[in-house]
Amino acid sequence: MALKLDTELIRLISLFEKITRSKVRDCFYFKDKLVFMVEKGEMPKALGKNKGNIFKIEKLVKKKIKIMEYSSEMLQFIINLFAPLKVQDINEEENIVTITGPDTKTKGLMIGAQAQNLRAYETIAKQYFPQLEEIKVV
Asked: Mean pLDDT, consecutive 10-residue segments, the chain of 138 residues?
C-alpha cells in the first residue's frame, strides 16, 4: 500500500514541478490537503501569477493544496508551516517552540480541535528538526 502512495506522490511532484517550474523538496498529506514543500526562494514561482498555479493544480488533482517554503532554520520553517496564519511572535527555549498568535481566532486555527492541527504540525517539523520537543501556542 505504501508503494502505491509513494508512486502517487512522485507523480504529483512531477506534475507540480512541470506546471510551476519550481523545485519541490517534499510532498505529503496534511488532513485533507496535499502539501508541496518548495525549496527556499521558489515560492513566487510555485504560486504563479495571482496564485494561478494553485488553482490549476487543484483542478487537475481534484484536491486542495498548500504550498510552503522550506527553511533550514527551525523557527522560520515553523512560521512557513503555519502560513497563511500569521505568527505574531515565535521563540525557542530548550527545544520547545512557543508561538504567539495575533488573536484568539488565529490561535484556535493553529491548535485545532483537540490540538490535532498543532500535533500534526509538530510531527512534520520533527521530521526536519528531530531535536524539537514540542510546539506551544500561547
From this structure: 66 96 92 92 95 94 95 97 95 96 95 94 95 96
pTM check: above 0.70: yes
48 CB contacts (<8 Å, ≥6 apart)? 20, 54, 56
Burial, 76: exposed, middle or buried (Cβ in 10 Å; 0-12, 13-18, 19+)? middle
The residues, ordered by sequence, that sit 6+ positions from 43 with a Cβ below 8 Å of its Cβ are 22, 67, 69
In CATH, what class is 2-69? alpha beta
Third-level CATH fold of 74-137? GMP Synthetase; Chain A, domain 3 (3.30.300)
| Own/partner pairs, 4-13, CB within 8 angstroms, 24+ separation | 12/61
